[in-house]
Design brief:
about 600 residues; about 50% helix; 4-stranded antiparallel β-sheet; about 15% strand; 20 helices; alpha/beta; elongated; single chain
């Protein structure tokens, strides 16, 4: 494993209880939550070809990457803390008040406060403390030479470097930070394993080095060294140009600070190019320049456990997949969040997949057991609730219909179980049920052809049973569909008899009413249906033949043999099919009259045919 044969642009960082990896088109973060379960979040980022060309120029790209890495790294740390901090099973009154009044989780508030004090600590340690120590030294030793001297700035930079190293050593005293350094080691080992061309397994990763040329620790060291040299030069030039020979004034101090701030982009740009140069070569000539970074990495990385390596591998493989596969789905951590934020994220993802917004609202509404109309009353979604919502959301993104995922749907006020064995009952079919119930009289019998889930037969039987006695038979050619229809009848305590029959072939007797919602999609149009319908709902229940009217012709040929005199047939049809269906029944079955009933959208959907 001496030579790397599979160089990658993917880099990463350790986060709380996990690893974040970032590629050209996506970034992924895998963490272990309080239950030890691996959680994965993956987001798309702007690809290189869509970025500003100016930002890709040498030295400029270093500044851009530094800022992007700083921002994304901080966001990743905060986000990982939200995923890692578990749900409080016994919330305090304060946490309940925060959730109810501020619509925030306590974890979010803690993260913001921690970030604020972290920035203050960084400013104090790496700006004010080195400056204070150098001034103190300058007052007592003449060799320092005053603020404008090269020695002064070299000493100040030296203090900054020493404080940085001491800070790292201090963090080793804390178990939680040592754990983070182990995840840092897992990140390096995983990238090294990939670059050596080895399969990404735990065993292979364990064999690899935890040191890497593109490490952020090495970058920080280079930044410190370059800043020492550059800041010293800038200070010397300013003091010389300003002609300062005595004590430096506060105005001059402020000017020097401002000049150093202006130099930061140049420091970052030069440091980035040096880091890339060092990473491209294994020449012994460059080892002295790499060695300090390696030594610091020995402090900021530790040997990881197997479950830590699994996190790093998961994040790396997901990032690689997002870079190579435009259809690789995004994923989201299950954390405490607000309903509005969760809905916005889901709707955005659904829009990219041409999935209706309403599905996001149904998922949240049904999981939280609150009406869709009340989703505007924002509230905090608990971590356990969020996890359930995201499981359904991610499965819906695969294209599987929402009601198959839930396993049931509401039809005419009745719970109807559905899965890939049957079509999902549509709201427009409820119009057919309403018409059927209105024409049935006490003692009548009804036959429901192509019954599928049994939704029509069950709804009519239950509604009619409220004030009359009727007998209902449901018929279907599919054994799988009939099995589910019988289960739905038991669930709703509906008195329905189901028989296996290819339309009328297995049916005996005559009926006062026959209903049918047969397949009516043209065979050639099946491929152009929405993917969730085309790929998941049974073709047997969709395909109506070459012109979509095959089943209507077959029904028309025999319907009079199974209707009593004065009986009625009620069928559902596709959009723009009503007149053609009426023509078929007038021609083939010599019906007495027909009537078209429109659905709630004004579409001629239901046809009543009298004999």
């Amino acid at each position: 494993m001496k030579k790397k044969t599979n160089r990658t642009y993917i880099g990463g960082q350790a986060v709380l209880q996990g690893v974040m990896m970032r590629g050209k088109r996506g970034m992924a973060m895998a963490v272990r939550d309080d239950n030890g379960e691996l959680q994965l979040e993956a987001k798309r980022i702007k690809p290189p070809e869509k970025r500003n060309k100016f930002g890709k120029l040498p030295f400029v790209r270093g500044v851009v990457n530094f800022v992007v890495s700083l921002v994304s790294g901080m966001k990743a740390l905060l986000r990982s803390s939200e995923a890692v901090i578990g749900e409080d099973e016994d919330p305090t009154k304060f946490s309940e008040w925060v959730s109810d009044k501020l619509k925030l989780s306590v974890g979010t508030i803690v993260s913001v406060i921690a970030t604020f004090f972290g920035i203050l600590l960084a400013v104090a340690l790496f700006i004010f403390l080195p400056n204070y120590l150098t001034e103190l030294l300058d007052k007592n030793f003449s060799f320092v030479g005053g603020r404008g001297s090269v020695w002064y700035n070299l000493i100040e930079g030296g203090f900054r470097l020493v404080i940085f190293i001491l800070y790292i050593l201090f963090t080793l005293c804390f178990k939680s930070l040592r754990e983070t350094y182990r995840y840092h080691g897992a990140e390096h080992k995983t990238i090294n394993c990939y670059e050596y061309g080895l399969p990404l397994t735990v065993e292979n990763v364990k064999k690899c080095s935890r040191l890497h040329d593109r490490c952020g620790t090495t970058f920080i060291f280079i930044v410190l060294v370059i800043s020492i040299v550059l800041f010293s030069l800038v200070s010397w030039l300013w003091v010389g140009l300003a002609g300062i020979t005595t004590n430096i004034s506060w105005l001059d101090k402020l000017i020097l600070v401002f000049l150093k701030i202006l130099c930061l982009p140049l420091v970052a740009g030069v440091s980035y190019e040096l880091l890339k140069l060092f990473a491209l070569t294994n020449s012994p000539l460059f080892f002295p320049f790499k060695a300090p970074g390696y030594l610091l990495q020995l402090l900021t990385t530790r040997e990881p456990a197997d479950d830590m390596i699994e996190c790093a591998i998961t994040a790396f493989e997901k990032t690689l997949d997002m870079d190579e596969n435009p259809d690789s789905p995004e994923k989201t951590f299950a954390t405490e969040t607000k309903v509005s934020k969760l809905l916005a994220m889901m709707k955005k993802s659904f829009a990219e997949k041409n999935i209706e917004d309403a599905d996001a609202e149904w998922i949240v509404s049904l999981t939280l057991k609150i009406p869709r109309s009340e989703l505007g009353n924002d509230r905090v979604v608990k971590q356990s609730e969020c996890k359930k919502i995201l499981e359904i959301f991610e499965e819906r993104l695969t294209g599987r219909p929402l009601w198959y995922i839930f396993g049931d749907t509401d039809f005419y006020g009745y719970k109807i179980k559905v899965d890939e064995r049957v079509l999902i009952p549509r709201p427009e079919t409820e119009v057919l049920v309403r018409q059927a119930v209105s024409v049935l009289n006490d003692g009548d019998s009804m036959l429901d052809l192509c019954t599928g889930s049994g939704a029509i037969a069950i709804a009519v039987a239950c509604e009619a049973a409220k004030d009359k006695t009727v007998s209902v038979v449901g018929a279907d050619i599919s054994d799988d569909a009939l099995e589910l229809a019988r289960e739905n009848a038991r669930l709703n305590k509906a008195n329905v008899t189901f028989v296996k029959s290819d339309l009328f072939s297995g049916v005996r007797g005559r009926f006062n009413l026959i209903t049918a919602n047969p397949p009516y999609i043209k065979s050639d149009d099946i491929g152009s249906l929405q993917p969730e319908v085309r790929d998941h709902e049974p073709r047997l229940a969709l395909d109506g033949g070459a012109d979509g009217l095959e089943f209507y012709r077959r029904i028309a040929e025999k319907v009079t043999r199974y209707l009593v005199r004065g009986g009625m047939l009620i069928v559902e049809c596709g959009e723009d099919q009503a007149q053609e269906v009426i023509k078929i029944f007038k021609t083939k079955s010599r019906c007495d009259y027909t009537m078209v009933v429109r659905d709630l959208e004004g579409v001629a959907r239901i046809i009543k045919i009298g004999y």
